[in-house]
Amino acid sequence: MSDTSNTVGVILAGGLARRMGELGKNDKALLALDGRPILAHVIERLRPQVGPMVINANGDPERFAEFGLPVTPDSVEGFAGPLAGVLAGLDWAAAHATDAAWVVSIACDTPFFPTELVNRLKGAVEDEGAELACAASAGRHHPVFGLWPVCLRADLRAALVDEGVRKVDIWTGRHKLAVAEFATAPYDPFFNANRPDDLAEAERMLKESAL
Length: 211
What we know:
Blueprint: E1 7-12, E2 32-33, E3 36-37, H1 38-46, E4 53-56, E5 71-72, H2 82-96, E6 102-107, H3 117-128, E7 132-137, E8 140-149, H4 153-162, H5 168-172, E9 177-182, H6 196-209
Parallel strand pairs: 1-4, 1-6, 4-5, 7-9
Antiparallel strand pairs: 2-3, 6-8, 7-8
Helix pairs in contact: 2-4
C-alpha cells in the first residue's frame, strides 16, 4: 500500500493552544523546535507519506506562507474541534484533489509521529475490512491521527452541522473503525507539545534519540 497519490494530508493547526500559556499567544505550530517551527518538522515527516498536503487553520493564512502549502479554515464556526478540521480537509480534497480517496489527519504539535503512519493505517483498513482508521499507542487511541474516506464527507458534515457532534469517538463509533497500534519504545511517537515543558522535552528527545 505504498501509493501516496490518492491520499491528502491535512495538518490540523486550528486549536487554541490554551495550555501553552504566554507562548500560546502565538501559533503552537510556529513555535521553535531545534531552530525550526514545529510545523516544519511535521511537514517533513508527512511529505513522503501522502500526495497533496494542506494546513487546516483559522485566521490569516499568510502566517503560514513560508511553508508553501494551501491553508483551509474550518467551515463549521466556533472552534468545533478536530472533526471540523477533518471536514475542512475532506472538503479541500473534494474540491482540489478529485482523484483522492482518503484524507489523513495529523496534529500540528507532534513532530515525531511514525514515518510509516499512512501505510499502517491503510493496512489496518484493508486487513479489517473497515471504513476508516486511527492510530493507537500504549493502549490509547489517537483519533486525531486518522485515515478518513472522502466518501463520508457528507455524513461528517451532517453530524457536525445538523447534530452538533463534536467528539471524534461519537462519529467514528457509527462506522467500522480499524486501529493501528504503534510501539512506544524508545519513545511514544505521538508525543505532543501541549505545554512549554513539552517543548523542552522534545528538544531533549531530539538530541538523545537522533529523531
